[in-house]
Amino acid sequence: MTGTTGEPAAQAAGPAAGEPAEPDDDPAAPAPLGVPRTPTGHAEVDAHLERLGDADHLATDGHVEVYEDVHRGLRDALTALDARPGPPVPPPPYGPRS
After folding, report:
1. Is 60 exceeded by the pLDDT of residue 96?
2. What pTM was computed for the model?
């Protein structure tokens, strides 16, 4: 389509050359929730909690994979606490002497 001067008409669908594109205002687009993650002091647990940030950049249907991965990792870390040997068991008290 040409304008009255014989030049192509400007396209309304896209930004003009040199102009910045407008931000995507799609409400369904992934957006960070901005939920702070406080370090726990346990490197393994903190790594799994940081993984939750990966969901910020995924569409909703991708969240399940991240949440299941984090849940599995946290469950394994908790199970490992139960598997660690504790302090040695004290010897039984001496029986009555005769």
Report:
1. yes
2. 0.54
DSSP the chain: -B-TTSSBPPPSSSPPTTSPPPPP--TTS-----------S-HHHHHHHHHGGGGGGS-HHHHHHHHHHHHHHHHHHHHHHHHS--SPPPPPPP----
pLDDT tens digits along 63-93? 899 999 999 999 999 998 887 677 777 887 8
The mean of the pLDDT values for the chain is 76
The rounded distance, in Å, linking the Cα atoms of 44 and 42 is 6
In this structure, the number of other CB atoms found within 10 A of the CB of residue 19 comes to: 8
CA distance 43 to 73: 12
Distances (CA, A) of 21 to 10, 11, 13, 14, 45: 15, 14, 11, 8, 40
Both tokens assigned to 33: 């929730």
Count, residues in the chain: 98
